[in-house]
Structure formats: structure tokens, C-alpha cells
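Spend some time on the protein that follows and explain the fold to me:
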Amino acid sequence: MMKPFAALLVCVMSSTVTLPGRDPSDAQRVLAAPYAQFGFDLLHELAATHRDTNLFISPASIAVALAMTSNGAQGATRDAILKTLHADSLSIDAFNAANRALVAELGNATSVQLSMANALWLEQGFPVEPSFQQVLEKDYSAQAENVDFRNPAALQTINGWVAKQTGDRIPKLLDRIDPSTLVMLTNAVAFKGKWTLPFDPKVTQPHDFNCENGKAISVPMMKHAAEYAYAGANGLEAIRLSYTDGAFAMYVILPENAARMQSFLAQLTPEAFNQLTSSLQTGKGTIELPRFTIKIGATLNTALRKLGMGIAFGDTADFAGIQKSRRLEISEVRHASFLRVDEEGTEAAAATSIGIRPLAMRVEPPPFHMVVDRPFFVAIRDERSGQILFTGRIDDPGL
């Protein structure tokens, strides 16, 4: 098993959408720091509970899926989602406009293959508020599809959509669908880029890789000597590996040991990351990097609860923006990702689904009728301390 490889796919593009109080040049950046911080938060949370395993997430995919969901939330539920995404300083209109800019501009990349797609899946016969569907279509390009979530065909349909949008890199996002699901939102991101400085396959050789658990495994290690942007200090090495014309890049950060990895993740913020990457200096050197492919799937409910979104998963959830007549909650947030790094470049894909189901209906018990007409037990307790003061069995209350 490989040592945890923590990488983030953060999509931030240019935009022509004007946000209230901001010039157009700022629209492309308005969600960059919030979504990056959300991604770092989530990565840190997952790293705390998933030791000795790979972690690879797309903050952009998860954040956009949650952004769509926030449009169906109201009150404290919406506030919790936006706060978790670090976007609570934006009005909902500005937030949606910024997401519209992000989604639209993903298709404008020329040096790499990059795309994002969204979809809204509705239970047949379940009407949603028109405003909810309209904003998803307008700002997220999410077309609504009617399905029968209780029919196994729905699982095939949604997984098929994900597979298509990710070039079959994620053939199965969902293993099952809660039959009580009424609404599901999905997002898919796909990326493919070729290195500006490709590795020569003839130079790739087996090399030992030391896992965090102490085990050493043999991996195909790529190698290239050239000029790179690099820095090494404070127990970290960092390098920038650019794609094609340099508009996109992968940053590889190598802590000196497991403890340094933990402290790095704990202190990771957009500002700290930018400071680190801006410290890189171009110089001659050699990079050796494993050639590998990983596939990961995870349910994010627990992590999102810990990050402050617990209200969206329980009895106090408010999704009246989806439908006013039914009380709804999030049933599951599912995320899957794919990463391949080889001599030519990188392929990455991710997909996120958010299921919405009705809250369990509380059934009022029928009025009781207790007849104490046989021997019974009795206890008198101090409710402040729980101390039993008197107790006994009454066989004959007439004596």
C-alpha cells in the first residue's frame, strides 16, 4: 500500500460574470480560497481517520455539489453548508454567480482536457420548488432527470452518467441508493494533461517506496533531470510539475517523515499553500516520482458533520427550498476519485453525489390505558442525583 498521497484538484478559472461589488477580474478568484480551504479542512479530517491509506479528493467537485444543495436549504441549514464551504460572507446570489463562472470556465481550458458536469435527479412524481430547479439549471447547468430510485435501473443510470462524464475513469460512484431517496445531486470533474517536461519511459526503474507503516514496496520510479521550480526547507521538499504551456501544474510536496506530514496538513491553509508555492525557485535538478494509479471511494457524512454541517443530516434539517410540504435531510454524500500519473502526464477524475430523503415520520402512539390490578413494583428516586430512596413490590395494596 502506498504512503498517503494527498493531492487536491482545485479548479479556478477566469470569468466574465460580474459579482455584486466586484470587478469581473475578481470573479474567477472569488471561490478559489474558500474551496481550497474547504478541501484542506476535509483532507485533514479524512487523514485523521484514514491512516496508512491513500487520500485523493476533488474539493471543486464536492463543493459544487454542496453549493447546489445549499440552494434547497434554508435558515440555519443553509448557513451551516455555506460556512463549511467558507463562503458564508457571500450572498446566495453572489455565491451562485461565482459557481456559474467556475462551471462555465472549466470548458475554456485549451492546454489540458478539463470538464465539469452537474445533474439533478428527481423521484418520479416528486415536485420540487420551481425556483430550486431553475437556479440549478441556470447557474450550474444541471439538467433535471426523473428516475425511480427504488428501481435498480436508477443506480445503473446514475453510475452510467458518472462514467460518461469521467471518461469511464469512475465506472461506479454508488453501490446502492437509499430507496427513500427523493432527490440526488451529482457532480463530475475530469482532467487530463501532458507534462511540459515528459519523463522518458526507458529511464523508469523499480525502486523501493517506504510506506508509513514501515513496509517497503517496489514501485516503477520515473526520473527526469531538468530545470524545475523547487524548494526545500523546514522538513519539506516541494516541486512544480507543469502541464503543456504551464497554465496548469501539479505540486508535489514531500515531508521528511510522518510527523511532518501530519503537522503540514494541520497547518495547511490557502495562504500557507500559496506562500510555499511562491517560494519555489527555478534551478537544475532531478525529480524521481512513482508511476501509479489509484482509485478511491468514500462516504463523507461523518467528515462533513465534524466540519459543521451536522444540521443537514438530521431532524432539524431545513430543505424547504426543495419542497415546502416535506421535511427532508441529506442521507449520504458519496465521493469517488481516480488519479493516474505516468511518463506522459496526469489523468484525474472525481464525482460526488448527494442524496436527499424525507425525514422519518413520527408516528404518535395510541392513548394508553394502564390498569394496575396485579402485583406491581414501585420506586421513589431523587431525580437530581438518581438515588433510589424507596423501592419495593406491592402484592396487596389493601392491607
